[in-house]
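Problem: given the chain below (123 residues), write out its structure.
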Amino acid sequence: QVQLVESGGGLVQAGGSLRLSCAASGGTFRYLAMGWFRQAPGKEREFVAAIVWSGGSTYYADSVKGRFTISRDNAKNTVFLQMNSLKPEDTAVYYCAARSLTAATNARDYNYWGQGTQVTVSS
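Solution.
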């Protein structure tokens, strides 16, 4: 059973940056593809970014491409989401998710989820 714990959320002004972290335990991290999703109040959970088990390929939602960067440190069992040029519309609870090997953009394809971390961007 894989456990995921997110951290790094908070309140930031528009144009600012935040770095989210997701620490994994209970599984073989280097064989897991990792994803970040977000859910704003009254909206469905949406894909943000994903990275394959090796870190060799990354995927991004169009809304964050060029502003967000996903990365991973397999030695530390941690995946990161660097968020730059934040906008008020980025405000949401951000969730870390894991699945075996290959990345996916559909939340239903992920087996493990963290509890989420709140990101609030003020205008």
